[in-house]
Design brief:
- This protein has helices spanning 17-28, 40-47, 98-105; strands at 10-13, 31-32, 36-38, 54-61, 64-71, 91-94, 111-112, 117-118, 128-133, 140-144.
- By secondary structure, the chain is α+β, with helices and mostly antiparallel strands.
- It folds into 2 domains: 1-75, 2,3-Dihydroxybiphenyl 1,2-Dioxygenase, domain 1, CATH 3.10.180; 88-147, Roll (2,3-Dihydroxybiphenyl 1,2-Dioxygenase, domain 1).
- Strand 9 (128-133) and strand 10 (140-144) form a beta hairpin.
- The chain is globular and about 50 Å long.
C-alpha cells in the first residue's frame, strides 16, 4: 500500500501574488520567499494549460506553506468557488487575537463573509471562528482558541 509521506503545500490562484503575499506577511507574520517564474513548457506539463505562464510565491509559517500562483493568462477569470460549491476550499489559520487580525485585514479588503461564531459546547467551547473573503473571493477561516 502506498501512503502520503508528508504535507507539502496548499496552492492558491491569486490575481496579484505580491499583494496577497504582503497581506500574509504583514497581518499573519508569514515569511515570503522570492517569486519564481515557471517556464511555460513546465507549467503546461504540470497544469495541462497551454502557455500557462505562472509566477509562484511561497509563504511559510508554523506548520503551513502556501503557494501563491499568479497565472499570466487568467487575471480576469471568475473568483474562487463559494464555500458551498463543489470543490470549494479555504485556508484556515489559528490566531491569538481574532479582533486584531480582522482589523488589520480590513485595509487589505478582507471582510467577514458572515459573522463570528463562538462555540458554546464540545471540545472547542469558547473558540471564536469566522470566514473572511477579499475582492477575489479567496476564503480564509480564522479561529481563536478559548482563553
Amino acid at each position: 500500500m502506498t501512503c502520503a509521506t508528508g504535507y507539502w503545500h496548499t496552492g492558491v490562484t491569486v490575481r496579484d501574488a505580491a499583494r496577497f503575499a504582503a497581506y500574509l506577511h504583514e497581518v499573519l507574520g508569514l515569511e515570503i520567499a522570492e517569486p519564481v517564474t515557471l517556464a511555460e513548457a513546465t507549467a503546461a506539463t504540470v497544469t495541462g494549460i497551454d502557455n500557462a505562464g505562472i509566477r509562484a510565491t511561497f509563504a511559510r509559517g508554523p506548520g503551513v506553506t502556501i503557494e501563491l500562483l499568479e497565472y499570466a493568462s487568467s487575471p480576469d477569470k471568475a473568483a474562487m468557488t463559494p464555500p458551498d460549491g463543489i470543490g470549494g476550499m479555504h485556508l484556515a489559520f489559528m490566531v491569538d487575537d481574532l479582533d486584531a487580525v480582522l482589523a488589520a485585514g480590513a485595509p487589505w479588503g478582507r471582510r467577514l463573509v458572515g459573522g463570528i461564531f463562538t462555540a458554546t459546547t464540545g471540545p472547542r467551547t469558547g473558540w471564536r471562528i469566522c470566514y473572511t473573503t477579499d475582492e477575489d473571493g479567496i476564503l480564509i477561516e480564522f479561529a481563536q482558541a478559548a482563553p
